[in-house]
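Researcher: I've been going back and forth with a colleague about how Protein NLRC3-like might be arranged in three dimensions. Neither of us has a model we trust, so I'd like an independent prediction. The organism is Chanos chanos, in case that matters for your notes. Sequence below.
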Amino acid sequence: MPEPLNLQGERVNFDPRLQTQRAGSPVPSCVSMKSDRSMPEPLNLQGERVNFDPRLQTQRAGSPVPSCVSMKSDRSMPEPLNLQGERVNFDPRLQTQRAGSPVPSCVSMKSDRSMPEPLNLQGERVNFDPSVETDLTEDQSGCCQNVQHNTSMSESDDVLLRIIEGHKTTLKNKYERLYEGVALKENQTLLNSIYTELYITEGESEGVNEKHEVLQIETASRKWVSQDKPISCNDIFKPLQKPEIRTVLTKGIAGIGKTVSVQKFILDWAEGRTNQDIDFMLVLPFRELNLVKDEQFSLHRLLLEFHPELKDLDPKKYNDCKMLFIFDGLDESRLQLNIPEMLCDVTKTSSVNILISDLIKGNLLPSALIWITSRPAAASQIPSQFISRVTEVQGFNDSQKEEYFRKRFSDESQANKIISHIKTSVSLHIMCHIPVFCWISATVLQEMLRRDYVKEIPKTLTEMYTHFLLIQTKMKKQKYEDKVETDSKNPLESNKEIFLKLSKLAFNQLLRGNIMFYEEDLRECGIDVSDATVYSGICTEIFKEESVLRQKKVYCFVHLSVQEFLAALYVFYCYVNETMEALQYFTNNIPLDMLLKGAVDKSLESKDGHLDLFVRFLHGISLESNQKLLQGLLTHTQNNQRSIKKISRYIKELNKDGVSPERWINLLHCLTEMNDRSLHEEIQAFIKSENYRTKLSLAHCTALAYMFLMSEEVLDEFDLKKYKTSDEGRRRLLPAVRCCRKALLAGCKLTEQSCSSIASVLQSVNCPLRELDLSNNDLQDSGVKFLCVGLKNPHCKLEILRVSGCLVTEEGCSSLASALSSNPSHLRELDLSYNQPGVSGIKLLSDIKKDPHCRLDTLNVHWIRKRRELIEYNHLGPVF
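Model: Here is an independent structure prediction for Protein NLRC3-like. You can compare it with whatever you and your colleague have in mind.
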């Protein structure tokens, strides 16, 4: 019988001093037939000997010595103690009947198998297996929740552990590297070295998903001032208030970071950092499920298609293990998921549609966790009753954008230059909420700064993507043709045919709503499938092929916006060359203004806004300066000033009744792409209109705030209270603080979350804000602390701050004093009246005011105080 284990897992030897030699036996024994004195006393938790209860001892016939051991019954043996010192009764179900004995007993003289198994800390019986003794590693400690990790494990459990470890190793090798753009060796980066945490919130966004995805991220940045609470990606299955989280749906636009978040989630698990209660993470991307959607599988066999390392896994273990199924990219699914059949057996063969449907519904493996990612417009495919939690990836906030660029560029000065330039352009700064756009911008700006093309640095979206196309083509020459492209030769000209084929593919598939293409789609546009790698090489980071399930190929552009840019380029090429094939979708008239008008009308007819960004690029390419950049693809340029004026007038005069604010914003973007700077006038017209005098909806508030930002005009005064809307509507208008000199936000029910957003504004380069009134808001000390982060930033130039009646105490005053000490040269007036700063708070601020470097001229700390405090306060002298 193996020695018992103490609480440290070490074997405990019986005290040899207590052993006695039995007559006629060469082996010492701790058991005597005449007396129990030869048996060592058990140890308690302090390592002291515990005497058996003498009250339970019985006198055997013919023996002068009491004994705790009886040959006929175990009732004479004292019950063991539990951790509370109470006697524990042996489980009668474990007692066995000895031959020739009418009484069941748990003690046998020949074998220890009749002895009841000890209890673990959960009160469950633990089976000792003397044949296998294994020390559990830290990673193994997270294994199957229903598999008992004993000091010795059964052979089947050992096999299961090996499968789990092999599965983790496979996933670690697969997901530890990130490919930015095409999956070429030179593009790979260790994920942990560049990964930047994304801003993820719990709960669905307000309203339907009938707007273009790029606009969704632009408006999502406005939501950061609302009451949404961020959630860490690794915590999405950890309940906050709900009793159980089984199925999580994560929404987010293309390129916002959903798939990279999944990759980081898996890598952290495979490396043993998080979620170690999960045994298997089974990744089933919809783009690969599409390739087998017409075949029949059991769930077990389907999993082996995606995870062959599970070939030795017994299907019976599926219900014993904690499994997470990850379905990435619901928007790419071609499966029919709403099927009424019910499947409960993992070994039963059925269609992929039924397997996935029943997994999500909980008919199959109801204890399994499910994680689905999707672009917003496709999220409604999963009925809400099957979703436990909805999360939304909203991209990078301002600090996360900076973190990304600093991680991407080891040269700190280069990173600073790029960050500084992006901040000077509102449109670029907002678009960088999208991680993929951060990558595109970084690629372009790094190259332009290297060549000292500072004056040519793009300001509009069309300019950025045009330069991106040029730079990637030059990189292709260097990588694949071993040439250094000279500046005098246009790199687009020699690749014109291939680019036009790719642009045609982009346009055709955009009209069909496809972002993933297959071989037949490429052949339709004259692209030789066997030469697909060449096409990838020509565009390097623009068009890519992927080997997926069974080495089948799928193709896509690196980002939806790249597809939309090339689609617009194809239509404009057809216009310049009077090729009616593509133009007939919009108009039968050839003048440019009629083409653009037709594109605008078509985009407004689209419910999901899938043509919005395409229309924006089309207006941008019509500008002569952008046509010059595209020489080589376009045979000649055109001066379209007359047409541009006509379409600008059409957009401004367009009847906006029934047009959602988000769609209207996109039309205003079109003006910006054509260098029409009259957006500020449009805002003023809106404010004076009837729409403004009625109560603004949340969507209108979001749109109006965005219009303020995109106008790039500085407002003299922004008075939040004069806008007729709800409290949440006012919070959505708050980003307009970024573009005004004086912000009047008093009495608008702002909170500490609002202060965090305002602090971000104060840290912005060239922020025009000089006067800020936050009086009569429930900010408290926590809100003031957020505000102080901005006040102490060297970019902050705020001169007047009013926080009267904001429930600020000594703690908040201490934060203000610290901020002013760090950056004393800007604030000259501080109003803290009707708060509770206390004597210590007043003294801290008074001392700061005496600092010769401090510009603070006026400090108002008038407060309601007791008589004794008034006397103490008066000794400090005047501080008004």
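Researcher: What would you highlight for our discussion?
Model: I'd start with this: The first helix runs from residue 155 to 175. After that, consider the following. The CA atoms of residues 129 and 154 lie 7 Å apart.
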